[in-house]
Amino acid sequence: MKGFKTLLWLEFRRNGIWAAILIGSLAFWAWGLFQVRLVEVSQQLEVRAILLVLASAIGAVVLALMIGRIRSETRGGQFQVLLLTPPSGYVHIAARYAFAVATAVVYYVAVGGLAWWTIAMSGLPLDAGSVAQLTLAVPFYGLGITVLPLLAWTLLLMVFIAAYRVSGPGWIPGTVMVLGTPFALRWLIEGIVRASYRLPGWHLFGGLEGAIRQAAAQSNGELDPIAVLPQEPLWIMLAVTAILLAIAGRIWQEVEG
Amino acid sequence: MTQAFLIVVRVLLVALVGFWAYRLWTGTRSWTTRFVGAFFSATLLWQIVAGTL
User: Fold this and answer.
1) What CA–CA distance (Å, rounded) separates A209 from A169?
2) Most buried residue among A31, A128, A176, B19 by CB atoms closer than 10 A?
3) ipTM of the prediction
4) Mutate which of A83, A176, A177 to disrupt the B interface (most B C-beta within 10 Å)?
């Protein structure tokens, strides 16, 4: 436990600036959202939704770059020092992943908060349940199915490349994994689509039904944001994340041995 | 002609990925690393031989 805390502190020292810049960038996105002043409410919501999706996507890329900085450490010699430290490979992986996930949680919950602010600026009434879903349930669902597996994959990629640093060029493992992943991902997504909605779905924004129906009637019935999210993708992607992390930890452990 | 060209390209790609797989297998003593390398190499080979690549 002491080793984990020490490594977590090391992560904070190493990546704290990245995390601060990422979370600080939300001020820029908030400014951008505030600048959208179109007359039509639906257009306003559309543009702001695009900005929020963009903020989420850029956040995911920055987080992946942050957790993937192990490669530069290999060149700088820090990685070799880390391999010789007493904590196991699993603890190293857990600490690195925990710091990135903590940063991601703060960032995406804040993005959910910006979405709430956006809707409030548009004049749509939100009940407490919908606010909680918008600021907590939706960010955590999105994190679970996209960012957490992405971060675990990046970590595995970097550990996999680092495992070959003595024997040969790192570009072969990197190329094989990067090229092979889209095909493996396609099989995974096909499997998820087949498995979806076998369990009861999660209804979101049910408390807004009246307001949404009223808005839908005014815009010729085009608005239908009441979402029913399947729960299977979340469980499957969390399981994939756990498997990727376990493999990354195992590789670290074996390389150290 | 096109069919023959595609077959030649596929054979070359199989040879390239096969070489990569060999390097990944012999470049480490970690069995988990070998398993990961074999999985992604096999995915690529499957796509070249029987898939859409």
Assistant:
1) 57
2) A176
3) 0.91
4) A176
Rounded CA separation B17/B20 (Å): 5
Give the 3-state secondary structure of residue A102: helix
Neighbours of A38 (CB within 10 A): 12
Q: Are A52 and A111 in contact (CB under 8 A)?
A: yes
3-state secondary structure of A253: helix
Global confidence as pTM: 0.86
| Pairwise CA distance, residues A128 & A70, whole Å | 42
Q: Which residue has the tokens 């002609």?
A: B1
Distance CA A31, CA B27 (A): 51
Interface test with A, best of B43, B45, B47 (most A CBs within 10 A): B43
Encoding tokens for residue B17?
Answer: 């990925």
B45 and chain A: CB distance < 8 Å anywhere? no
**Per-position pLDDT tens, chain A of length 257:** 667 888 888 888 888 899 999 999 999 999 998 888 776 777 888 888 899 999 999 999 999 999 887 655 555 555 555 555 567 889 989 999 999 999 999 999 999 999 988 888 877 777 888 888 889 999 999 999 999 999 999 999 999 999 998 877 778 999 999 999 999 999 999 999 999 888 888 887 776 666 666 665 665 555 555 578 899 999 999 999 999 999 999 999 888 76
Q: Do B43 and A160 touch (CB under 8 A)?
A: no
Rounded to whole angstroms, how far apart are CA atoms A21 and A27? 10
